[in-house]
Amino acid sequence: xxxxxxxxxxxxxxxxxxxxxxxxxxxxxxxxxxxxxxxxxxxxxxx
Length: 47
Known about the structure:
By secondary structure, the chain is mostly helical. It is 91% helix and 0% strand. It is built from two helices and no strands. The mean pLDDT is 95.
């Protein structure tokens, strides 16, 4: 769970940097990565 949280936070920081730099495609990919980690965390908590 700690690993997923760390990966989620890294993806979040990356998405903010991509948004600031105007890299839209990378920003959207980072958001998808964040969504993936969020789903995994929810699945772990549910079990």
